[in-house]
Amino acid sequence: MPRTSWTRRTLAALAAAVLLPLGTAACTTGHTHGGTVSPSPVGKVLDDTDSTGRHLREVDRKNAPAVGVEVTPDSGGGWDVRLTFHHFRCSAPGAGSTAVPGRGLVYLFVDGDRITRLRSPAYHLPDGLVRHGTHHVTARLYADDGTAWAVHGKPVQSTADITASEAESAPAQPSTGTATPVAGK
Questions:
Q1: Label partner for 56 (CA 20 to 30 A): which of 82, 138, 139, 155?
Q2: How far apart are the C-alpha atoms of 43 and 60, rounded to whole Å?
Q3: Using CA atoms, how far apart are residues 41 and 24, in angstroms rounded to an integer?
Q4: What are residue 177's phi and psi, to 5 degrees?
Q5: Cα(114)–Cα(117) distance, rounded to whole angstroms?
C-alpha cells in the first residue's frame, strides 16, 4: 500500500508540472475575465468607463472608427435610424469576444437609456420609445470584447436631436447627428 500512494503522488506532481504552464498560457488571449478586460493589441484599455460602466478602448484619432446618425420620421409611425460608419464594420452575430481594429457593434440610446444593440446600419425606433417632446438619439461604437471605442478619453458616438410632435401637427423634420469626439473629420 505505501508503494501505491507514492506512485499516485508522483503521477499527480508530473501532471501538475505539465498542465500548469498550459493553464497560464490560456489566460493571455485578450478576452474578458471576471469583469476585467485583458490587454489586447488594439488600442489601450483605459480605467475610465462610459455611461454604461464599460471600459474605454483608446485608439489613435487618425484611424479611429466613427459613426454618424440620421433619424427621420417614418410615414407608418415611429422613426427610422440610419447609421453611417467610417473605419468601422459591424461584426456578424457570434463573432469572437476579442477586440479587432474597426469592428464591433453599436448601442443605440434614447435620452441616455440603452434601447438596443445593433449589428447593422438601420433600425426602426417605435413610437412608444419617443414620446412628445425633444429627445436625443445616440449611437455609440463598441468593440466585440465589450469595451467602448474612444478617442482622447471620450466614447466614439454621434447624437441626433429629434422632436416628436402631437399627431395633428406638421410632421417632424429629419435630424442628422453630431459626432463626438471625432467631429470635424
A1: 82
A2: 8
A3: 19
A4: -75, 165
A5: 8
Residue appearing with cell numbers 454621434 = 158
Write the DSSP symbol of residue 169: S
**Residue of 148, 144, 120 whose CA lies nearest to 51:** 148
6 torsion bin: left (phi>0), alpha (psi -120 to 50), beta (else)? alpha
Q: How much is the pLDDT for 17?
A: 47
82, burial (CB in 10 Å: exposed 0-12, middle 13-18, buried 19+): middle
pTM: 0.71
Using alpha carbons, select from 161, 51, 43 the residue that is nearest to residue 104.
43
Alpha-carbon distance of 49 to 147, in angstroms, equals: 9
Which cell numbers in the block locate residue 53? 460602466
pLDDT at 37: 52
Task: Single out the residue of 5, 89, 16, 104 nearest to residue 54, CA to CA.
Answer: 104
Identify the residue whose cell numbers are 500512494. Answer: 5
Hey, which residues does 15 pair with through a beta bridge? none
Contact 104, 93 (CB under 8 A): no
Instruction: Chunk the chain into consecutive blocks of 10 residues (it has 185) and report each block's average pLDDT, rounded to whole numbers.
Output: 51 46 36 48 92 96 96 94 98 92 97 96 93 95 97 97 70 55 43
Q: Identify the pLDDT of residue 24.
A: 36
What is the rounded CA–CA span in Å between residue 158 and residue 179?
Answer: 4
